[in-house]
Task: structure prediction
Amino acid sequence: MRAPAWRAPPCGAWQDDGMRTFLWAAGVAAFAPLVPAQSVAASPPIALLETGAGYAAKVIGSAVFVSGRSVASVLAEEFAPDTPIEAALRPLLRVEVDEAARALTVHAGGVQRTAVFRPGLGCTLALGIEPEDLARQTVPLPAYDRAPDPRPWPAGDALPHEPWPEGVDAKALRAAVDDAFADDGPRPVRTRAVVVVFDGRLLYERYAEGFDATMPLPGWSMAKSVVGALVGIRVRQGVIALDDPVPIAAWKGEGDPRAALTWRVLLQMSSGLAWQESYVDPAGDVPRMLFAEPAAGDFAAARPLQVEPGTRYRYSSGTTNVLCRALRATFEEGADYLTFPSRELFARIGMRSAVLEPDASGVFVGSSFLLATARDWARFGLLYLGDGVWQGERILPEGFVEESTTPAPAAPRGRYGLHWWLNAGPPGHPEQRAAPGLPADMFAANGFQGQTLVVIPSRRLVVVRLGCTKNERDFDAHAMVAASSRRCREPRASRAFPSRLMHPMQTDPRYPIGPFDPPTTVTPELRAGWIDAIRATPDALRASVAGLSDAQLDTPYRDGGWTVRQVVHHLADSHLHAYCRTKYALTEERPAVKAYDENTWAALPDSSLPVAPSLALLGGVHERWVAVLASLRAEDFARAWFHPERGKTFDLDFLLALYAWHGRHHVAHVTELRARRGW
Result:
């Protein structure tokens, strides 16, 4: 059932049978951010209406059903009358939201376009297919749960409580990020999210009002770099090689020179295919491909060869969609293809929110249609910062990141690699690079309206900025990243915060968050953070084993290591000892404690029991332990005990630091095993 269409004041809404209809004078402002006023006369009105209605339905549909925004908020920002053309065309548009069918329809001057939402696949324009038929084409993909993942960042969402690393100017970094949200110019910048990750640790994030860390947002052309990663995964799987010809059926005719085009030249944007990457004419290549064609990849693949492949660089959204079409040809079943990004990339690196949206033909529109939270975009950057390895597991083939960040021979000033923007500069002249204020090893994924994901390996830095800046000259992303980069320097000698503890690229499965690094400087803030970590351990452990079968619990977390079941029982044993040692130290003068052999304890019969008794024991011990710790004065943490086997005295500050690490350490053993196995 579709709600009756009627005209209402701006932001007017009404409810009927669970369906909301928003009627707004937004005009083909849908496409107006891309179209200057003079182009209206240069193109047939129907082209403007078709692409405009398609753009509006797609953008508003994804914002409503994927991001969880209101229609009113999208119209107030994406379709605000910031230009004369927007103000003139807004009265032509009507928007209807059918909550029951999870579809959004836009009417514009007699043209109607509908975007259909499908779980895990986002919104797709129903072009060449009835919306009801499109809605039935689903695949089994996990729904995005916005509840925070209790695992430590970057595998989960739990951030450390420790002070920022030395060498980081916290006040100046915050100021640099906050500047990105300033809207004091003649036109609004509309920064929505900024995330700064240094040395694997999420240092600072900020969100505009109405946006938060759980909201997936569009990256537009940032999606191209994700397509590059998907190609890399198929290379690692042995299905393709970069110098193989891409399997495009339309190019297999006798004598077709396009049949020789390889994955590499397409990734380098050097295919030689005809293409105009222009957003000015609504009947042009990009608008028509994205918003008026049912099969974006086929539309782009129909372009003829203009020049010798590899000899001319030409940035092309069409090229990326040809790659998506070619990737589809490497799968026998459409469902395997549609679940491939989630199964082999997003789920493995914790990008739970990521949604790569296909067109009506069932092929991903990888040039432009990927939504993810700012944190998840940062996780993708961390994957490349870690040479394609995540938590000890290789996701991308060895050497692929280096190839991706090597300038394409035809790219001017060394500006482009394999679907990544580079900052290398011409060979031998790095001073002529595109962003001279940033290191030459910087690489970036950039998108429409000022989206950017920047990776700087030499600074161990990842920066994400998402927004809606219609005139991209109004926002200087390079300046924001440069200011952030200057505030993050190599940590000095102090080990008060061992930054490697949270490094996502650790390759030793024994130490998924890094080995314990005892502090030499202790502050009240550090103590409070350690107590918080001890308080959180029982819930984190319980969450890490939730839903595991007995067979999974009896799986070693690494070759030669304990089983998950043994890890749970060990935590209860070990932390009970720590609780007792805390009380010994507080009630006796430098008592000698009894050591125990953890490996022989782990081999006793009680380590084969269900995990529930140890989870309950750990919870009770920690509740009492934290009550004691929280009551102590600063001088009490100097209380100590003697370890006869080590011949050393340890104080309560050391114990706090050790067991805050110890809980996260063993929880990570479980969560990383689950991530590797896809449990």
Confidence is low (pLDDT under 50) at residues 1-44, 490-507. The two ends are 40 Å apart (CA to CA). The longest helix spans residues 652-677. The CA atoms of residues 544 and 674 lie 8 Å apart.
